[in-house]
Design brief:
alpha+beta; eight-stranded antiparallel beta barrel; three-stranded mixed β-sheet; about 15% strand; disordered N terminus
Length: about 625
Amino acid sequence: MSPADPGRRPAPPASAPRSRPARLWGPPPWLWLTLGLFAVQVPLLVDWLVWAAARSDTQHGRSPAMLTVVALTLMRLLPMVFLLAGALSVVPPQPRTWWVERRFQLKPPAHEPDGTPHVYDQMRRLLTDRAPGTELRVSVRRDLLARVYPGGWRTTRVGVFSPLVSLWQRDREAAEAVLLHEIGHLRYGEQYVAGLGSPFTGLVRAWPYVFAVFGLLPVALLFAAGNATAPLMSAQIVLVVLSVPKTLLIVVSALWSAELTADRYAAGTAVRTAQQRALNALTQSPRDTLARLYHPPVRLRLWFIARTEQPVAQLLLVLLWPAAVLAENLLDLFGAALAYRLLGDSSADDATTKAVSLAREQLTSGPTWWAMLVALAVWPLLASLWPRLWGWRGRAVGTLSPAVYATSALLPVLILILGLLPAVPKPGEPSQADSRVPDATAAPAAGGSTAAGPTLPTPCPSPSKPAAPARPEGLPSFDTPRRPDTTGSAAPTDTPKRSFRTLRVASVEPLSGSLTQAQDIADRLAHAHWTLSPDGTLTTQDADLPELRTTAVHDGTRLLHGERTRTTDVSTTTTWVDARLHPQAGHTARLDLIRAATGITHAVVSCREFDSTVTAAARLTLQLEEK
């Protein structure tokens, strides 16, 4: 021990024999996997931008309901924007380095604050010994202890702040444990995705403000417009509220896993009691509330470093991120069931069945669980090569038990098996394997024959056209004028033929069904051409609308109604349209439309009858221009 470095524990030489194989230093790099999974969703972001551009052309996004849907969609896509920016900051890292050092006032250590240069020299020697090539930068700020960040393609920097200098002079072993924790991040290349300027920490810090602007504000607009209780909007509100913990679960668990892995490295190289003192000093340093979110609680870290070699701690280290993914899937399941229920087209049991079916499909068709399983399978082969990718030349510290690691891999295996298993029919519902001939051993129905022998097969039902549906209940309509206008409908032959074209769709509000169905109608009407005949009928050839007949006229405003029923061998669909045509200044007019369509299907497949009823309704406002 040199006089200049009192109290320092010497590091063992790099060639020292190891007591155990160093293949598995820790869990798979969940932070990098999270970044990759967000990156594969970038095409969704591109599709949304194309959709938003198309909506702006026809100016659909004016109603509170439409604004809300756009805002909620944007909020669900913002995490991808953050992490895409993080991926771009990895290649190249220099812009992030410049921003971090400017933001946190980090500079090369020129001299000590108190004129004693040995403190920074001792820190530099520790970094050179444990992580050769790592550069030291210092700052006079007092809100942090130390953080890693990239200095270039193959260069890493550790930023040291004023409280760590004070801790070094007061308790050097504890301060060394802080630096060793930061060095522990370097084995996984986490300086490129974590540390100062990290997109993950930036996402966590910005999320409360994002939620306030893109979540709470649109919901407030809905309440102000009186649309918050609409079934579609209620379902959207549920989904956006659940999107907050869902987004944070994945990102925060990946950050916690990285922090605990770095703690494990420090626990194997620093004095154990010194690391405990360092964590206690961390609780006394000034830290904002959001910073506590992307770092594990100090109590959990103290519990973990005291049990790093025990199976329960190792299992926590590997399964922390997969458990968060599972929790996200359960939130998806709960949210989908509640959303289906709020839409009002399903009973509680049916809503749960639909949600479970959707969750099973997402488990097997989505990339998350498959990517997790592949990562756990190949990590034992890549664990020794991964640190070299980031220029790590330090020794191995702490390995995972192979039995614990193999046990943790069972979680994604079981989840994928559950997703691939065939669906179990509900009680009383026949399965696909049911025979067309009933079981001969079944008990006869009341009043039936009790003679022995096989029961006659039940006749297979035949397809039939269902009856025309009734008009949906609760569908709004336009007010009837106070008295007829004799200059309009009473004298239709005096009304000249007029032609219009749609200038723009001013608003779209779904009343029933999905938003996509309402948008499809708006798209058809965006460039429609209209003809108002002398007999008071309004027709268009560019949209799926029935002929509209004038029912009343008052002060030039026409009320119109149309109804049409179409049938096939197995279905019947009726469309109702109520409209109000209001003349405006110049050669323009406003057309208010309420369109509803109900389709009933009666099909027979494998001698099983299937009946379904679907209703879609929307209210639209169009600005027309007379030709």
